[in-house]
Specification:
This protein is an alpha/beta fold. It has helices at 46-55, 69-77, 92-103, 123-134, 151-154, 182-186, 195-198, 220-225, 233-238, 242-247, 268-279; strands at residues 21-26, 40-41, 44-45, 61-66, 82-84, 110-113, 141-147, 161-164, 170-174, 210-219, 252-257. The protein has a domain at 17-143 and 211-286: Spore Coat Polysaccharide Biosynthesis Protein SpsA, Chain A, CATH 3.90.550.10. It contains eleven helices and eleven strands. The N and C termini lie close together (10 Å). The model is unreliable at 1-7, 11-15 and 285-296 (pLDDT under 50).
């Protein structure tokens, strides 16, 4: 696992011009990795490491939105601000909405949702997604994506794809292979159901395939409306809650990253890879005292 670097960042407003709060939803329950937010990584709970990465982004405030007093206690022991939210929220976005109310955030303020299982996320990318939203006053949400060239990933339903318009805003997110290169794929002479096995590894060079990255910046006003927005069928069918925003007419600006982000932690094997990656960077031994921007 490679260390994150500033190469992941996208062009956006200067950090000094963007004021935002970083919110980190943290759920104790995980079927594949129990107590995931509290998993030890080099002497620190994972959620604390994530909070320190967020603090290095220039966020004016970093708050962990916990569903358990155990997470709350772990954060406070390490000087990380945390609040207790309802443990019955159906989505992480609902948890963010409650956090905005509890914190009394202004409706015009910007927040970045930093996933609590991404201890290697580059701080520069957190800052960049906030700047992307600040740069587009007509969007309620900003997110990120990077170029996709491998056919197996393109056809993998676990990989979410996004198509953008001329202004860089999302037209559609889907687990399906979009956009569909009709002529190029037809030339392969293979039935659609076997395309992942029969296509060459690189996709057609002219195909603007983008892999969505689950990093979001929001306007607080949108988050406060979110729990009351009806879930459309397309959201339920795709199991992608960002489709709720598009369905109800909320614009999402999509910044393009120059490289994929470091993978997050979903399984015990992922956790071990992160531990090994950090073990090879001695400066991380002092991360509890002085987090540094873009340090792995």
């Amino acid at each position: 696992m490679s260390a994150p670097s500033a190469a992941h960042s996208a062009a956006a407003s200067p950090a000094s011009a963007v004021e935002f709060t970083a919110l980190i939803p943290a759920r104790l329950g995980s079927s594949r990795l129990p107590d995931k937010p509290l998993a030890d990584i080099g002497g620190l709970p994972m959620v604390v490491r994530v909070a320190r990465r967020a603090a290095a982004s220039g966020a004016r405030r970093v708050v962990v939105c916990a569903d358990s007093a155990r997470i709350l206690d772990a954060c406070r022991q390490h000087g990380v601000e945390a609040i207790l939210t309802d443990d019955r929220h159906p989505t992480g976005t609902d948890r963010l909405a409650q956090a905005c109310r509890l914190l009394g955030l202004d409706a015009q303020a910007l927040v970045v949702n930093v996933q609590g299982d991404e201890p290697l996320i580059p701080p520069s990318v957190i800052r960049a997604v906030a700047a992307a939203l600040a740069d587009d006053p007509h969007s309620d949400i900003a997110t990120a994506a990077h170029a996709l060239s491998d056919a197996r990933e393109f056809f993998d339903p676990n990989v979410v794809k996004v198509v953008r318009d001329a202004r860089g805003r999302a037209l559609l997110f889907s687990r399906a292979p979009i956009p569909w290169a009709r002529d190029a794929f037809a030339a392969e002479g293979a039935p659609r159901q076997t395309l992942p096995q029969t296509l060459p590894a690189p996709l057609p060079a002219q195909l603007p395939a983008l892999r969505h990255v689950g990093l979001y910046a929001y306007r607080v006003a949108y988050l406060l409306r979110f729990p009351d927005l009806p879930r459309p069928a397309i959201e339920e069918l795709e199991s992608l809650e960002q489709l709720r925003a598009l369905y109800h007419g909320n614009a999402i600006t999509v910044m393009e990253l120059s490289a994929p982000l470091p993978p997050g932690v979903d399984t015990p094997a992922d956790l071990e890879r992160v531990r090994q990656a950090l073990a090879h960077h001695p400066s991380e031994r002092h991360a509890a005292r002085a987090p540094a921007e873009d340090r792995p």
